[in-house]
Amino acid sequence: MPGERSAWSLLLAATAPHPRALHLPVVGGEQLDEPCSRDFLALAFRHRLPGLAMAGLAELDVRLAPSAAAELRTAALRDAVMVTRLTARMFALLDAFAAAGIPARVLKGPPVAALAYAGGAGLRHLRDIDLLVPQRWFEPAHRIILGQGFRTLLDIGRLTVAELPRFAHELPYVDEAGCIVELHAARSAHGRGGGQADGFDGDAGSTLPVTGREVPVDPPAEIFVHLCRHGASHAWTLLKWLADISHLIAAAPDVLDWDAIAARTRRSASQRHVGLALALARDLHGVTPPAALAEFIDTLPPGLAQGLAAGLSDPGKGGPTPIQMARLEVVLASGLGAKAAAIRDFVFAPTIQDARDWPLPRGLLWAARPALYVLRRRRAPA
């Protein structure tokens, strides 16, 4: 590869808001050999970035080997088709919810594509549609989704749908075309055990145009903070999530208010979550942190961002273990109270699996959770 650049550094450049700032194009373009093309392809697929990677390579005038280029084009086209299908399903469900008087918001994918990629949803891999409803509307929303031709992907056993939000923040569904919808009673699993009720937090919400139609979403400040928390909850194992942050920052003069985001960050005690996202975007995509948020980077423990960034470039790397994710959540929690709550939720908050597998009264599941966790791990090898 010309210039001895690695496939990883090329993927970082191709998926950055300004690719040429990280990879100086060669006059006449670059032709990658087969091994390097395969390495690039493996990383692009692992991080679910075919469309954005292909667009970035074109801007850099870098060409993959023919077979790898064909695979990347096919994957990008497949993503674009799935985005179209999912968007149509999203509109149908929102219409059905509105007809039933159910308030709902679209999380993550479509709003992020509209804000960060100038509406270019095909640039962003979309695996599913996330719909947030207040907890008291969870069961009616569930019935509507089933009526739209979906089936549940999760065995909830003896639990009722109405009580499921006590044990999980979402319920996934799939239709015959492979479109996945996740119904949320809260934005994330964080705080589930602490009684997080519906995730709307008393705000008025907002709307954003998605393929020409206004859809209900969180306020833009919450969208950004939630993305930072979501990436941290998965230990930032996918570059796709970081690309969203980087492109949002680049688009921010037109779509985001950094002072509002700073206030939302402090109100939700997310200083370290936001600081970590900014540090990773700076170190990997060369994005300058907004001045209003730069102080949050200083709240991070030394080496935390660098350690997470180092693990991203391995195409075979698996996800973090539950204990590793819990440890990171404790590290990122602001204050002793928040750290204690994170430990409490990990140790005591029962999961759907607990409620499904153990015939105990709901209240006893909390007390029995540590013993059930150990027992399940001992049984796992068998």
End-to-end CA span: 47 Å
Low-confidence stretches: 191-198
Largest β-sheet summary: 5 strands, mixed
Shape: globular
Question: What Rg, in angstroms, do the CA atoms define?
Answer: 21 Å
Helix content: 40-55%
**If strands are numbered along the chain, what order do they take across the biggest sheet?**
3-4-7-6-5
* Mean model confidence by pLDDT: 87
Number of strands: 9
Tell me the structural class: alpha/beta
The percent range for strand residues is: 5-15%
- Separate helix tally: 15
Order of helices and strands: HEHHEHEHEHEEEEEHHHHHHHHH
Entry keywords:
single chain; 382 residues; alpha/beta; 5-stranded mixed sheet; globular
Would you mind describing this structure in some detail?
This protein is an alpha/beta fold and 382 residues long. It has 15 helices and 9 strands. It has helices at 7-14, 34-46, 50-60, 66-99, 109-116, 138-147, 220-233, 239-255, 258-267, 271-285, 304-310, 322-332, 336-348, 352-357, 362-379, and strands spanning 30-31, 62-63, 105-107, 128-132, 151-152, 170-174, 180-184, 206-210, 213-217. The strands form 3 sheets. The chain has a 5-stranded mixed β-sheet with strand order 3-4-7-6-5, with helices on one face. It has a two-stranded parallel ribbon with strand order 1-2. Strands 8-9 form a two-stranded antiparallel ribbon. A hairpin with a 5-residue loop joins β6 and β7 (180-184). The longest helix has 34 residues, at 66-99. It is globular, with a radius of gyration of 21 Å. It starts with 6 loop residues before the first helix and ends with a helix. Residues 191-198 have low confidence and may be disordered.
